[in-house]
Amino acid sequence: MIPAQFDYVRAESAEEAISLVGQHGDESKFIAGGHSLLPLMKLRLAQPSVLIDIGRLTDLSYIREEGDQIAIGALTRHMDVENSTLLTEHAPLLAHAAGHVGDPQVRHRGTIGGSIAHADPASDLPATTLAMGATYVAQGPNGRREIPAADFYKSFLESDLAADEMLVEIRVPKMTGAGWSFQKFNRRAQDWAIVGVAAWRSNGSSGVGLVNMGSVPILASSVSAALSGGASVSDAAEQATAESDPQSDLNASVEYRKHLAKVLTRRALEQASE
Amino acid sequence: MLAVQADGQDIRTIEGMAAADGTLHPMQQAFMENHGLQCGYCTPGMVMAATSLLEENPNPTERDVRIGLEGNLCRCTGYHNIVKSVLAAASA
Questions:
Q1: Is B53 close to A104, i.e. CB distance below 8 A?
Q2: What is the CA radius of gyration of chain B?
Q3: What percent of chain A has pLDDT over 90?
Q4: B83 touches chain A (CB under 8 A)
């Protein structure tokens, strides 16, 4: 439970953070809320030699309307996403899912950018923003670039971010008036999902993201394709596992996870279709 | 979180809740009056989380309180009297 030794530096700006990671190289890690990284460090599953604290970059904590998108600063805490009136109106699926991350203590400290950059397939927000067709904005030494969520998750805890890039913004399309649902199945309120499903439907389009159904967050495109082809909700939900590759663990076997994914997808689509 | 991340910030702990003369904070008083604790192990966390909850939401429903205390585990009370204590503190 005691992390290995590390050095700590606090960045005062995004530019400084990126230059610091340039100096310290691959063995350094950004820390924001710390609610993904510190548990790994305590188990010594992560042993960065330098922590670059970006937690005080308050200019990266914002939620604002930009045309047909909502832009969310990477340092925005889960609690602020959950309680945002802008998101509740235009992207209620994301606000609601943020309210299911961990417990209030975690949501007061943890950030949306930290959760997404950590790229944990068992976390709620990667799969939710993937389902929504979000775009992530990364900043590096040569400026900013946009990465579609669908191209971001490479393998377990590995994203498309280069070592000297920092996630600075999450952009989600407005889904004002769309049907939506977030289904999270777990044993205790603050646990990770054994399986989770984020889904939306609007004017013949849909998106379904699966939590903890593989080594990366899963976009269940076969479900959306079935719905577009006129399939019923229950028939479409049968396609929920087409893209997934779940693991067995203490909480659930592969078979149980696949069954859950179909059941939760059906429930999510039913709710999103109301 | 790391202690260094709190550098320059104010930190409030259970030790700072009661007044200097020993008068309990209203939340502590409510826990005492409503039997909101048994062994006491979880009580500091419960009192601090509940105090933070009321600062954000001064008039919570029972459901708000239960959600607000998520993540704070109590192995003796079954939570009922803890929730009762927080609701009592809210209406005090």
A1: yes
A2: 13
A3: 94
A4: no
A115 has a pLDDT exceeding 90: yes
- Quote the CA–CA distance of B28 and B18 in Å, as a whole number: 8
Residue A98 CA to residue A200 CA, distance in Å, equals 16
For a pLDDT cut of 70, what percent of chain B falls above it? Answer: 100
Which range is least confidently modeled, A18-27, A93-102, A125-134, A236-245? A18-27
Element (H, E) at A79: helix A78-82
Spatial CA neighbour of A112 closest among A88, A76, A148: A76
**Domain match, A33 and A75 both:** no
Is B3 in CB contact (< 8 Å) with chain A? no
CA distance A180 to chain B (A): 22
Range of the domain at A156: 58-173
Smallest Cβ distance to B71: which of A8, A33, A103?
A103
CB-based contact, A7 to chain B, within 8 Å: no
Q: Domains plus CATH for chain B? A: 39-92 (1.10.150.120)
Q: Does residue A235 sit at the B interface (CB-CB below 8 Å)?
A: no
State whether A68 and A150 are in the same domain. Answer: yes
A165 shares a domain with A189: no
Same domain? A27 vs A64? no
Residues A104 and A129 grouped into a single domain: yes
Q: Return the structure tokens found at A116.
A: 């997404």
Ranges of beta strands (E only) in chain A are: 7-10, 28-31, 50-53, 63-66, 69-73, 135-140, 143-148, 153-155, 158-159, 166-173, 179-185, 195-202, 205-211, 218-219
Kindly state whether B60 is in contact with chain A, defined as any CB-CB distance less than 8 angstroms: no
Q: Is the pLDDT of residue A238 over 90?
A: yes
Q: Which of A215, A246, A234, A233 is nearest to A273 (CA)?
A: A233
Q: How many CB pairs under 8 A join A and B?
A: 37
Nearest-neighbour CA in chain B from A227: distance (Å): 35
CA quadruple A84, A85, A86, A91: dihedral positive or negative? positive
